[in-house]
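okkk here we go again. third time trying to get the fe (ii) ion bound version out, last two times i messed up the smiles copy paste (missing a bracket lol). double checked this time i swear
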Amino acid sequence: MIEAFDLFSVEQVAFGTGRWEQLGGFARRLGSRSLLVTNAGDPGDGGLVDRTLRHLEQSGVAATCFRQRGEPRVEDVERAVAAAREQGCDLVVALGGGSAIDAGKAVAGLLTNGGSVLDYMEVIGQGRKLTRPATPWIAVPTTAGTGAEVTRNAVIGCPEKRFKASLRSELLLPRIALIDPSLAVGVPPHVTACSGMDALCQLIESFTSNRAQPLTDAWALHGIRLAARALPRAVAAGDDVEARTQMALAAVISGVALTNVGLGAVHGFAAPAGANYPIPHGAVCARLLPPVIEANVAALHAEDRDHPGLAKYAEIGRALTGTCDAASDAIEAGIGCLNDLVDQLQIPPLRQFGLTPEGFADLVSLARKASSMRYNPVTLSDAALTEILQKAW
Ligand SMILES: [Fe+2]
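finally!!
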């Protein structure tokens, strides 16, 4: 039986190679003074940021640049909001990887709702609801990974609280997600690998989420097939626009899926791991994904040998490998395929980022508080969570 569900998404996804050229026209429709939040280079370096600033100005939209460095923290967002207020910005353009997109998203939300970031943040803040639509904003991703261009949450770090958490509301969705896969052509292989593994992980976790629903399931399964084949190609040959396009599509699907149905234990760990260790989000996701699937399969099997969750892991295995094996073989083949992919892409194990076994207990208890953990298909014991870290270490 198909149960009731909702699907939220952006007003417009403008997808396709060369569509960056349309940014000025879209921007002019939405505002006249923009804050460009970006991590796609520095103003003055002659690259994409300069081209974008020029393009906006030539289209009749004033542009002020805010350079986002690293993953956004509370103080970054507050500084960007202050800059936007000072310039009287009525539009935000976020250009770059997930960090810039999330920073721009938070800025757009804060500009109309007032107050400070922590007033609205989940887990580490007051969790107040946003009540006003965000300032119109356009998301222009340059990497294929987080899917942040279509999600309704912005992940913000707070070093003092040793946690990353979300500002979350439908009111934060951009007006337009402008996805031009050719913008990723210059992205270096290790960034392509990590961000692509994040997308694949999000597709798998949303497909197995305990809130999964038929629309996102259909898309996510397609996304898993795309990513499994295109990611090694995009990493090996960055100028393979076809592979870049397939990864951009996989990433946008992962964003639509996760924002509607949630994720799971991999992302439950990723939030505190990323806040406490210098681990790129995609790397931690990649390393945790195979052991989390093993733990989930074992726990589902212990609950009920015919648990429907097991059939979903078998479908994932078939999508990853392109075979039509029986369920238990397909699950095993899927896990093997992911382990091979992580090795092939040379994603470092977690020990290389300063995590030690003494830190496991702390990470397990922090992960339990993360919002993603609630959507894992099965509740995992502390022992199972610790074993996952051991395997990814
Ligand atoms: Fe992610």
